[in-house]
Amino acid sequence: MTKQYKTLGEFIIENQDSFKYSSGELSRLLNGLRLAAKVVNHEVNKAGLVDILGEAGDQNIQGENQQKLDVLANEKFIQTLKKREIVCGIASEEEDDFISINSFDNQHQNKYVVLIDPLDGSSNIDVNVSVGTIFSIYRRVTPVGTPVTIEDFLQPGVNQIAAGYIIYGTSTMLVYTTGDGVNGFTLNPALGTFYLSHPNMSFPENGNIYSVNEGNYVHFPQGVKDYIKYCQKEEDDRPYTSRYIGSLVSDFHRNMIKGGIYMYPKSSVASEGKLRLLYECNPMAFIAEQANGLASDGKNRIMEVKPTELHQRVPFFCGSRNMVEKAEEFMKNANA
């Protein structure tokens, strides 16, 4: 007998009690995201056949060359979210400033802000390696009926009401949380429908994979160097396996399934770290904590960091609980 899988829409309706606001609002938010994801997935899958590979000739606010697919993904997510009559503002890693969105009645009635990395790992596009989209959703803090302001976006991660990612790989998956566990949905490309394929996703408490760009080893703080050597030492259940794709979504997804730690520390060439607090670290931290993992800047819980600017960067350590705690221990000892 063929197993019947729930669709994403069915799952949202059946689990509406886990979202403390209107289930209709969550449905509209996720519908906008999944529609854009399907469009981007289509473009990713034909990237080698049409002229969307390579660089677009511009740089984003981070000073990074924008890939053509970066620009396309950014446009598609902004377009679909604008039409949902639910979002009052969008902040994108690809945009210099946030985008204010008025409600159709011009009374600023929309209640949610979305922060998004439209195409994470985009440097991998040209070599056919998995890329992804990361999103984070907050309730606005300014009064409904007024234009959205920067304060609506500069909220700590603990205020997130939903977060997730889409991974464009051998299959396309949407993984998200509303604060009541983590669930993954796989796209059936023939039907254009996401089906629940990975219910109740969870990090193993221990893992044997460490993910870090070891090419930057010489630039890392001593505590990180010490932890990497610990991972490589032949003792007990070690050495661990080193696996690093260079796409946060892909590395995180593998580690959540198999057990591991992802690290992007600060360094002598990136004193604040490289990953963005609002577009990458906070949403991934929310997912990790809801999946029995931890996320830290090396000392403090990521989701308690108070943002000071839209494109703020922080060090990031995320993954299996015991591995993150051990990494923090090495960093604390190195600074003692």
Automatic annotation (TrEMBL):
It is found in: Cytoplasm. It comes from the Bacteria. Its cofactor is Mg(2+). Pathway: Carbohydrate biosynthesis; Calvin cycle. One of its GO terms (cellular component) is cytosol. Its EC number is 3.1.3.11. It is an enzyme of class 3 (hydrolase). The keyword Coiled coil does not apply. Belongs to the FBPase class 1 family. This is Fructose-1,6-bisphosphatase class 1. It comes from Cellulophaga baltica 18. The lineage of its organism: Bacteria, Pseudomonadati, Bacteroidota, Flavobacteriia, Flavobacteriales. The gene is fbp.
